[in-house]
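Technical annex B. To support the medicinal chemistry partners, we prepared a structural model of the target in complex with zinc ion, based solely on the information shown next.
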Amino acid sequence: MMRKSFNFLAVLLTVVMMCVSLSACTKTNKLEPAAGLELSKASENKTQSNEDSSSGNVAQTIPKIDTTPPQSSTPTPIVKSIGKVIVVDPGHANKANLELEANAPGSSVMKIKDGGGAIGIDTKTPEYLINMKVSLQLRDLLQKRGYTVVMTKTDNSVSLGNIQRAEIGNNEKAALVIRIHADSSENTTVSGASMLVPLPVNERTKEIIDESNRCGRKIMISLTSEVGMKDRGLAPHSDMTGFNWSKVPVILVEMGFLSNPDEDRKLSDANYQAKLARALADGIAEALK
Ligand SMILES: [Zn+2]
C-alpha cells in the first residue's frame, strides 16, 4: 500500500515538473517578439528573392536567426519599431547575368539584368563584395534604429534582375529603396559620391520622383560630410530598369570610384565600409524621421 502511494506520488511529481519546464520553454520563446518579428520578415524575403536556385542561402541563414536571440539579445525588444520599411539592395552578384529584361513597363527596349559591376583598379576587389558588406552593416544599423529592413538578397551568388529588385520594394510598399553601388570611370582621377535618382518616364516614376530626390539629397549630405568625400550631386536617370519599374521612392548611391586608386583602397577597408554604412544610416534616418 505504502509503496503504491509512494509510486503514485513520484509519478505526480514528475508530471508537475514536466509541466513547469514546458511552460518555461514557451515563456522563453515569447521573450523576444520584436527581434523575432524583424528577423522573420528578413528571412521571409530571403526565400522570396531566392526563389530561383540558391536554396543554400536559405538553409544557411535561417538556423543562424533562430539561435542568436535567446540569451544575448535581451536588450533588443527595447528598440521601438518605427513602422517604416526600408529595402536595401546590394548591387550585382559574383557573376554577370546577361539575360534581357524590359527597361520599363511596356517598353521594347531590352537591357541586361546585371553587367557584373566594377573592379578595384589596384586592390582588384569586385564591387559586389563591397556593396554587400556595406549593405549588411546598413541593415543592422537601421534595425537598431527601429526600421524594418528588407534585403533584396544576402548572398553574393544570388543574381537578381532589376525588375525583380524593383518588385521587392513594390511588394513591401517600402518608404525607401536604397541601392548600394560603387562607381567606375576610364579617368582614374575622378572621385566622389553620386546619387542616382529616377526621372518621370511613366506614371509610376512621376509619383516617386519628389520623394526620391528629397531622400537622395539628405542622404548625400550626410554621406559626403561624415565620410569626407566629394559630393558629385544627384544624377537623374531615365534609363534604369530598377527605377522605371519602381512604385516606391528609390535611389542608387555610388559610394566612390573603384577606378580611383585612393578610393579603391578606402572602399576595401573595413573601417571605411563601416563609416559609409553609418553615414548612410544617419542620412536615411534624417530623411525618414
Ligand atoms: Zn554597380
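Notes passed to the chemistry partners:
The chain has two domains: 1-30, 32-287.
The pocket of zinc ion is lined by residues 91-92, 117, 127, 181 (CB under 6 Å).
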